[in-house]
Amino acid sequence: MNCAITRGELSCAKSSRMPHYVLETWINDNASSRIQLCQMAVTLRRMMAAISLAEKQCANRNNIVNIVEIAVKQNQTLNTTIDTEMFSESFDGAPMSIPSYHIDKFYLEEASASALYPKTLAMCSCDNHLAVIHEEVVVILQYIHEMRELDGAILVFLPDWLDLVKVQNLLYPSDNVVVHLVSSQSLNDSELHDIHSKPPPGKRKIILATDIAQSFISIDDLVYVVDTGMRKCEFFDIEQGINVFDLEWISRANANQRVGLTGSLGESYHFSLYTEERYRMFVD
Fold it and tell me: In what residue span(s) does the Helicase C-terminal domain sit (predicted)?
């Protein structure tokens, strides 16, 4: 058995382009053969990721999307970013790394934080009782929309649905943005199509999402990512004897993964609503 390991950043077209290369190689190698069948399988962790990929591939070929069956095995302990060094130990051959475009990364202390984001800056020194300062999230969104020259979508990571709704309400009644909310995989075809479609002329597309978006959303026109650095997790409260939900800081791997969502098609920007010192404190 031959094995080739391809390593690339998120959204760099590993799942969509590699089958093309395999098929082209197979055709060249079997040009004089009677073998007429080439079978390939692309496995993805989540159903919505498979639907999204299939829809985009069929759209590129002007075909009708016809998904007969999608079986996705859920495993919450896995990470969508493969550890190629560990994986390659089982095979002969080195991994191939696909570089992405330049990504400008900004931490909170680089954005006049004490004046524009005082509450968010203060939150960076906390390990407990975390909270998203929704008004200050909107401040950075307004800055990106009004001051940045590059057009393109903005993806904002927030902990849960309530945070998405609060930020959305603060953005309206602006008439120059189109806002989409993503907090689960249960998006219908119309909602998924809207997320991938370009907004009307003169409008900016903003996707407000929880960490579920890291696993299945691939946005072609994504240029900006705003990361609060928080997620909602379930904990067991010893005193009350019940399971409760609370905010915690994301891991360093999660933070790096969110950075990698951009940079596959051109220059992009990542704005962290936490300091570089807090980033260094994230667990590995």
Answer: 125-284
Under a CB-based contact definition with an 8 Å cutoff, are residues 242 and 78 in contact? Answer: no
Q: Which of 207, 252, 210 is nearest to 231 (CA)?
A: 210
Domain count, the chain: 2
pTM: 0.69
Alpha-carbon span 91 to 94, nearest angstrom: 9
User: Is 40 in the same domain as 64?
Assistant: yes
With respect to residue 69, please indicate whether it lies within any of the assigned structural domains. Answer: yes
Distance separating alpha carbons of residues 232 and 139, to the nearest angstrom:
23
> Which residue range forms the structural domain that includes residue 197?
103-281
Dihedral sign for Cα atoms in the order 47, 48, 53, 56: positive
pLDDT band at 63 (very low <50, low <70, confident <90, very high): very low
Residues 8 and 80 sit within 8 Å (Cβ to Cβ): no
Q: Could you tell me which residues come within 8 angstroms of residue 242 by beta carbon, excluding any fewer than 6 positions away? A: 236
Residue by residue, DSSP assigns 143-155 as HHHHH-----EEE
Asked if residue 232 and residue 123 are part of one domain, the reply reads yes
CA distances (Å), origin 200, targets 61, 81, 95, 176, 225: 24, 33, 41, 9, 20
* Residue 175 and residue 68 in one domain: no
Q: Give pLDDT tens digits for 132-177.
A: 999 999 999 999 988 877 788 999 999 999 999 999 999 987 778 8
The residues, any chain, with a CB within 8 Å of residue 254's CB and separated by 6 or more, are 211, 214, 231, 282
Convert the pLDDT of each residue in 69-128 to its tens digit: 344 444 444 455 555 666 666 666 655 565 567 888 999 988 776 778 999 999 999 988
